[in-house]
Design brief:
The protein has 154 residues and is mainly β. It has no helices and 16 strands. It has a 16-stranded mixed sheet that branches. The model has no long low-confidence stretch (mean pLDDT 95).
C-alpha cells in the first residue's frame, strides 16, 4: 500500500474498526504529514507488517494510535524519518495502549512516543531512537547497537 502526493498521506487509516493485517507493507511519503498506519479508536491486530513514513515536512509517524486505540503488533518493522519535527516510529496518544513484540521500531526523533494517558508494552524488540513517555513497560528490548535492556525501556 503506497500513499504519496497529498498534503497528508495515510498508508492504512483505521477508524473505529478492528482490522487484522498480516503480511502488509505500507509506505506514506511526500506530504506535510505522513502515516504508515493511523489507528483512530481502532484495535488492529498486525502481524508481519512493514510500516514506513518519510519525507514529511511536518511529521512522519510509522504507526499513530489515537483516542483509545489498542493495537497489537508482532514481527513488524516500523520506520519514521524525514525533515519534519515529529518523526516517531510508534506514537501513542490520548488513552491508547499498544502491545509490541518481536519487532524493529525506528524513529529519527523517537522510536516510541507515549502521552501521559497512554501505555506501550514492548517485548523482545529493537528500538532505534529515543523513547519518550513514562508509561512504557519494556522486557528484553535492545537498541540499534544491540545494547540489551532486560527490564527497562532505556
Amino acid at each position: 500500500i503506497t500513499a504519496s502526493g497529498g498534503s497528508e498521506n495515510y498508508g492504512v487509516h483505521s477508524v473505529t474498526s478492528n482490522p487484522t493485517m498480516m503480511n502488509v507493507k505500507t509506505t506514506a511519503s511526500g506530504g506535510t504529514k505522513n502515516y504508515g498506519v493511523y489507528n483512530y479508536q481502532a484495535s488492529s491486530a498486525m502481524t508481519n507488517v512493514n510500516a514506513t513514513a518519510s519525507g514529511g515536512t511536518n511529521s512522519n509517524r510509522g504507526i499513530y494510535n489515537l483516542n483509545y486505540s489498542s493495537p497489537v503488533m508482532t514481527f513488524a518493522t516500523v520506520t519514521a524519518q524525514g525533515a519534519g519535527v515529529y518523526n516517531y516510529g510508534v506514537h501513542n496518544d490520548n488513552s491508547s495502549n499498544f502491545h509490541i513484540d518481536h519487532s524493529v521500531i525506528s524513529g529519527s526523533q523517537y522510536s516510541i512516543s507515549t502521552s501521559s494517558s497512554s501505555n506501550a508494552y514492548i517485548g523482545n524488540t529493537q528500538l532505534d531512537g529515543a523513547i519518550e513517555g513514562s508509561n512504557n513497560a519494556c522486557a528484553g528490548v535492545y537498541d540499534q547497537y544491540y545494547n540489551f535492556h532486560p527490564d527497562s525501556c532505556s
